Amino acid sequence: MSHFYAQIPTSTRKTTPTAMGNVDTGITTETASWKGAIKTRLFEHNGIDWFEVSMQPWHGKGDKVILAEGHVGDMKSVICPLNAPYKRY
């Protein structure tokens, strides 16, 4: 049974593409332009659902940096390394 779910609600497609992941695989999405990509990753570790959002190069363009990470659904767990290293919001 899937633990994670992803969809693309807005695109030029007539249908909404979806994907599923379980606790072993997690789920990763990449959204890109010719200037770089944004990668989101959901995964489970020690019974907690985690997320990570990062910038990634795309076809050799763009930076690689983690923008935010934390527990899914818990704003107080979120770390934004670029704004305040190791500070939880």
List keywords for this structure.
single chain; 89 residues; mainly beta; 46% strand
Distance between the termini: 32 Å
User: Given the C-alpha coordinates, what overall shape results?
Assistant: globular
Which parts are unreliable, with pLDDT below 50 for 5 consecutive residues or more? none
Query: Over all CA atoms, what is the radius of gyration?
Result: 14 Å
Helix-residue proportion: under 10%
Q: From N to C, what is the helix and strand string? A: EEEEEE
How many domain units? Answer: 1
Q: Largest beta sheet: what is the strand line-up? A: 3-4-5-6
The secondary-structure class comes to mainly beta
Query: What integer is the average pLDDT?
Result: 91
Oligomer: single chain
Question: Proportion of β residues?
Answer: over 45%
**Sheet having the most strands:** 4 strands, antiparallel
DSSP summary: helix tally? 0
Number of strands: 6
Topology:
Elements: E1 4-7, E2 18-21, E3 27-33, E4 36-45, E5 48-56, E6 65-71
Antiparallel strand pairs: 1-2, 3-4, 4-5, 5-6
Summarize the structure in words.
The chain has 89 residues and is mostly beta strands. It has one domain. The chain has no helices and 6 strands. The strands form 2 sheets. Strands 3-4-5-6 form a 4-stranded antiparallel sheet, with no helix packed on it. Strands 1-2 form a two-stranded antiparallel sheet.
